[in-house]
TrEMBL record:
Protein name: GST N-terminal domain-containing protein
InterPro entries referenced in this protein's UniProt entry, alphabetically: Glutathione_S-Trfase_N, Thioredoxin-like_sf
Top-rank taxon: Eukaryota
SUPFAM superfamilies: Thioredoxin-like
Keyword annotations: Signal
Residue span, GST N-terminal domain: 32-129
Signal peptide as annotated in the record: 1-26
Length: 129
């Protein structure tokens, strides 16, 4: 059997009354909102989106086509470098990227890349233990 509490929560197998965990919206900083840049098909971006959706973290999603940011000269003429370009965020054709208050960034970057680093930041920032 699993037990789920109402609201934002996660399920744990219940073998003892002591093993019930619930997370409420009050635990999430409601004033923080992020901008999440990702490819629509990317499992790494989906990992971050799942975490933010599951815990009710507010974000604006910016979706890029896979060829976005690929320079034609680097891709035998097949890439493109248009307005919606992930290279503007970190200097690389690299997504997902998270922007927002207190998000650590490398010099010259606009946001934090790497899905596991983003998840680790969000877990620590919002106390999602």
């Amino acid at each position: 059997h699993t037990r789920c509490t109402k609201g934002i929560s996660f399920c744990l197998p219940v073998q003892s009354p002591l093993l019930s965990v619930s997370l409420t919206l009050a635990m999430i900083d409601a004033d923080v909102e992020y901008t999440f840049h990702c490819y629509d098909h990317c499992p790494f971006g989906n990992r971050v989106a799942f975490l933010m959706d599951h815990f009710g973290i507010k974000y604006k999603k910016v979706v890029y086509g896979y060829g976005s940011g690929a320079l034609p000269k680097d891709c035998e003429g097949e890439g493109y470098d248009g307005e919606l370009n992930p290279r503007k965020l970190t200097g690389k054709k690299q997504l997902p990227v998270l922007e927002g208050p207190e998000v650590p960034t490398a010099p010259g970057a606009v946001g934090m890349p790497e899905s596991l680093e983003i998840c680790s930041f969000l877990i620590a920032r919002h106390g999602l233990v």
